[in-house]
Write the structure tokens for this entry.
Amino acid sequence: MPTGIVGEFLDLKAETDADILAMQCGDFYEFFADDAELVADELDLTVSQKSSHGSSYPMAGVPLSELTPYVKALVERGYRVAVADQYETEDGHAREITRVVTPGTLLETADDDARYLAAIVREGDDADGPYGLALADVTTGRFLVTEVDDEGDLRAELYRFDPAEVLPGPRVRNDDRLLGAVREDLSGSVSVFDAEAFAPGRAKHAVREQFGRETADSVGIDSELALRAAGAVLGYVEETGAGVLASITRLTAYGDGDHVAVDATTQRNLELTETMRGDADGSLFETVDHTVTAAGGRLLREWITRPRRDREELNRRLDAVEALASAALARDRLRETLGDAYDLERLAARATSGSAGARELLSVRDSLALVPALADAVSGTALADSPVAAVLERIDRERAATLHDELADALAEDPPKTKTQGGLLRVGYDGELDELIARHEKANEWLDRLAEREKRQYGLSHVTVDRNKTDGYYIQVGKSAADGVPEHYREIKTLKNSKRFVTDELEEREREVLRLEEARGELEYELFEELRERVAADAELLQDVGRAVAEIDALASLATHAAGNDWTRPELADERRLDVEAGRHPVVERTTDFVPNDLRLDGERGFLIVTGPNMSGKSTYMRQAALIQLLAQAGSFVPARTATVGLVDGIYTRVGALDELAQGRSTFMVEMQELSNILHSATADSIVILDEVGRGTATYDGISIAWAATEYLHNEVRARTLFATHYHELTTLADHLPRVENVHVAVDKRDGEVTFLRTVRDGPTNRSYGVHVADLAGVPAPVVSRAGTVLDRLREEKAIEAKGGARGGGGERGGFTGTADGDTKQVVFDLSSGSFSESDDAESTAAGAPGSGGGRNGATPGSASDGASGSAGTAETAGAAETAESAETDRFDPETRAVIEELADVDVAETAPVELLSRVQEWQERLDENR
Ligand code: ADP
């Protein structure tokens, strides 16, 4: 065990669970051992070796005054850094840890984004929740507290706020799966904190201490879980951050009733703040963000990620955006003025936490000066009657002016960065200070002139007057002249070429100068502290002004984008509808010659099956619908000629496979979990986007699930839905389900070449373009040609088992033949011989495994267009409810029959999707064994 300084370091390190310790050693902070290596690695410091009792340890250090930027850089990389300071004791000095700087409590950040510290709490071991969640941004003083219903909502909130640090409560911290998922979702780190701090009694006390009993009670945190999370956050900030706790001033308790549910998957799928690849560039936020202040950017981001359901609020924003969009000149002037504003929310937090310096108070002054300028930019323009004016009216302008004037009177124009060097305050601000300064300067002047005087009076050459730490003030005389100094000179030092002297008078003056210097510094610092406290006392005013600046900036940003891109004001409707004329995708339109498309979803037409070849634009069309919905509920204009938007309670999306495999989950399982979540959560007031369902499994499973999900969404959930599928078979559902309609993205096919038209038309695509895509992709001609032939034969002779249900009877429906009288004709394509046989031969099915299928409407999908590709279950079999009892099932062995009967008995509407999935899997296994 090392002793000495390294031993002390290691002892202190053992006391803290921080990742890195910085220990003060005189004028330096030192890192030793592993910490030295790590810091040197991260920050390019030089490592030296420190010998201690025969061993040698790596050591790296930074000067005292330079610690902050190093700590900041380390914390921004996700490390928790403990700082141990040195203090004097009777027998020398000792050291102790004075603070731990963590990602969630870092006050000095240069980054404009909000920086949240989150705590999550749950009661039992049930991952389903509910959860208490608290989020604090110590840089702006914001503190949000809520309870969410389940894990999905929890993750949605976490994803939205992207906290820099998460504190899991006692139950959650052992839930490796949940923590793993949270780590996946977030860029921040997870820290374990004292379980005691999450206890209800202590939490309640902490919240009341922080915000005052009245606020704490009136804000109404009525959930104990939420309260416990809040208490933990406060406890953590108190324990780690010196002085940071004071900055948390704004408590908001929120429920989920006000916001549109947008789960983490959907936020990602719709690329709200980053693209699927993880770039900010190309996200919706980045596209519409023209804000000129950091706070405006933060607010706009929040509007986009947390759309609202409150129509009044949305119309208020829309009124403002409309006014700003048409008043271009006033808008430009406003934005120019806003551009000079500093981040008042953050400055307020720094004033309350005591870390603001004179330059920051100057920034407060300058930002407050903008209040009248903003008012000027609005009055007398078209904005005067708009909600923009109302936003400014919320500011107490008199108070703002008073504080501004006080700061203007007090602060020097160009104060130094440090608070202790003097020069912070203006002459005339304080009589006593001015007098001290005058005397100090006079005394200095006497010293400045001393050398000159001495030269003249005593005929000395080479005389200088200076001061240093050890000698204080002295008169230095060159060697040659040193012998001629007057008697009253007392020699204190001999140097190589000169001698140093003092005199009684000089010593007296020195004492005076030092006294004045100290008095001046102390008084000035005192006055400055008072001034900062004065600003802290008005923190609420600063928050108000900051909030107004942010809001106008965000609104002006939306207006700028709307005006520049020909967006239109959506009409917010009460009915359940989304009616868009010439709509565009807000992001894709920026980089493409975009073809606008209409969209109608309403009571009669609530479910659109979108078909079309790969790359034709299905996905874009559906996302565009979701984004128009979302933008309208963010209070923004939308990319369309006209849009009538019924407000939704949730936007749900499920989009084809990502790199979920990397997360150790099977893609199909993820797909089904997402589907399950949608089927459970969506309501008749939601909008649902499904971009391929069932692709991750065998064709027949896939079709069956897609089919059943469609019925469930249509019949039970009744959400407005857009469903893109490559299962052409699903298009027949439009015949069975009254609110289901087909649309397709048109392509032009001439001379075997496919041209994408990007136009969405009613009705299903009339054929699969897979073979043509194969052709375009350069698959050898003989293969393409043979595939074409096989496809044609499949189409002509393909099996059909649709029975009943079809409106208007049989006929050709997109390659899917039905018969009017409900008879089932069974045709089997034998892969080995390449020939077709009539249904009687079905028992000798080549591939053997019968496809599952079936829905309550009795129509069973036939072979998929890629049926010839050899995917599992290539043979056609019966499977619909009605056929289960028919004599045809006799053709099967008992086990297969049992499966078919069970299948027929399933009530799709009553069975949870996940259960359906596991049953399908079970059937498959039984059939497989039977093969
Ligand atoms: P799909 O989902 O059918 O495979 P996508 O929606 O991914 O097709 O679109 C394929 C490509 O077509 C994308 O690169 C997209 O930018 C472009 N695109 C889609 N819709 C349009 C449109 N309306 N106008 C112009 N380009 C479009």
Remarks:
- The pocket of adenosine-5'-diphosphate is lined by residues 588, 592, 594-595, 597, 612, 614-620, 758 (CB under 6 Å).
- The longest strand covers residues 740-750.
- The first helix runs from residue 4 to 15.
